[in-house]
Batch of 3 targets.
Target 1
Amino acid sequence: MYSRQIERSVNTAAFLGLAEIRVKQGQLVEATDLLKRLNRLSPVAFENLLASARVLSQAGHPVEAEEFLKLRMQAVPWDDEARLELARVEIAVNRQRDLATENLQKVVSSRQAPYDIRTQAAREQAKSGVTPPGSTGSREMDLLSNRIRMTPDAADAPYFFAARTVASEQNADPNVRVRLLLGAIAERPDDSAVRRLLFLAALESRQYYVALAANRRAGGVGATDVETAAGMAEAHRQIGQPAEAVPLFGLAASLEKDTGRRQALEERQKQARAASDRLLENERRRPVMRADVDQPNAVRRRLP
């Protein structure tokens, strides 16, 4: 399919997709030739060099990716995203570490680079141990690059989205993770990845209303997997909403492949259904407070 598409026109997605397949098949030379051909035929010069490099670097071929990134930097020296990717491959091949250090520092200190690119560069400094002395001029970048020790209190500052998420990953206390992730969500309400982290941390810390609120937001995590469906069901059960838990336990059971775990979920669904039926029956038995003394239903003792 990809071959037919690239014969008819310069279809960037088809070139990149076919190159990925060739890399997975172990045909590295053919993949590199395809990527070079894409960049020769591209109507916009140098546009696909970064994407081409990523096909190779993400498959574990940083040496081959380096060639494309150097061309990109020569053509577009202000491309901070390409500069970051070049630093990564230079670190991966363990050469020109001084140049990699310089490139990372340029990105971290840049006032033109997008926030996410700067934070990625700062984290790369911490990960690779190429953090130069001195401040970056940003407290959050100093935290992410390990110039300042990362602590929950230090990370929990206004606008520190990346620092909060990193600090939450490093902390074992689910209550602390919830606090940090609530701050991160306040900065980016529609970030589904962080919402899922908040959902899981809230379940672990038994903050069930927070868990459901994290999941309920449009664009947040949905009940499309066993863990999410079972977690939502348990949250509803814990806050006294067994009727809402019943279909979610059923969904989790239908998605579960393991027989033992599926049977356990089905049993919890039965328990939730029984609790829901008991609530409905108690609602019918309770007296109705109204001016008329007569009751619409027979008032009976509440079921335990």
Target 2
Amino acid sequence: MSEAGFTMTTDPLAAWLARHYAVLPKKSAALRVITSRENGAMYSNSLREVLRSAYGVDVGAYSYGSLLTPGSADRHTTIGRYVSIGPNVRRFGASHPMDHLSLHPIWYNPRLSYVDAGADVERTPCEIADEAWLGANVIIVPGCRRIGVGAVVSAGAVVTKDVPDFAVVGGSPAKLIKMRLEEPVRQALLKERPWDLDPAEADALLKEIAKRFDAPNLHSGR
């Protein structure tokens, strides 16, 4: 891919489809066109507009993976920049009300047209912060409000509570396995925030940080 191909992209047709997505009869086909014309989900600005406006999911630049598939993440999900998401990851913002007489959603979900909006269950927000990595088949349940910067969630984990910055967690329920990187390196990253930059600038800053700690193996960019 050329240097230009490593940037976020907006194609006129894709942008038009995103603006009219709500009334399009063939939404899956529209999404395929959008992503193909904008170099894939990782670089597609129009896909991000669809996710934000139609599904209540905000996705930062250069993030990719299964949570960018409509329906995989509940509303009020915020995904940061450069987030890596494996296949079949789900984020649930609500659960069935266990203190009700019936657990069936017809009694609490207004979209099923039987109850009004006031009967709906609480739908919690969740932030998946910059540079996080979620392995395959991770499930995030309503008790988790934040997965931290640079955190790693191992494949198959069920995340029931917040995950600290740079933590590696796994299991069901997910528990701390270890912390990534040494504390001075973590603090340097949090202070200088290379994930706020586009790839070329981020690459240069990551190289500089690795050099500062005399650890070239910390970064393998261009």
Target 3
Amino acid sequence: MFHAIQEAVDVLENPEQRPAAEVRRAYERWMQRFAEALKTPAGEAIRDWGEHFVKITQRYWPGLFHTYDVTGLPRTNNALEQLFGSLRHQERRITGHKVASPSLVVRGAVRVLAAVLTRVNPPTPLQLGEVDPVCWREERRRLGKLRQARVMQRRFRQHPDTYLAALEEKLLKLNLPP
């Protein structure tokens, strides 16, 4: 029976990098063989566990094979957590900080995506040169606004009286006639 489990692992590891539809069909065939094996006297010892496994697999079936269509995307939650952990580790090594920088959270949509994509398919100098400067400037402007908001939050936390006095002064200048 344990060789059957190893067979399922081999199908899901997909070393041939087959598309999701092929992996799904191969796993469906395995599931049918596994369900039949549970009905035999040899499968009696693990029948309860096996039936539970089949039931849970059927519950998750609609979303089970999406990752096979995206090259380099981790197939399990553990693999995804390992990817994010290695990104945090890399960030700490680059910055010299003990924890990941707050900008990883603020700019995470850009930085994590860039880090993952460059691991899967490193860009060539020609690809880097094809970036639209207008889009790049707009993205930098958007990220600058997010950074400014974070800076203001930090200033308020560190020196609330000074921050509020400066804010009141700005408000009075706006309301007073010239």
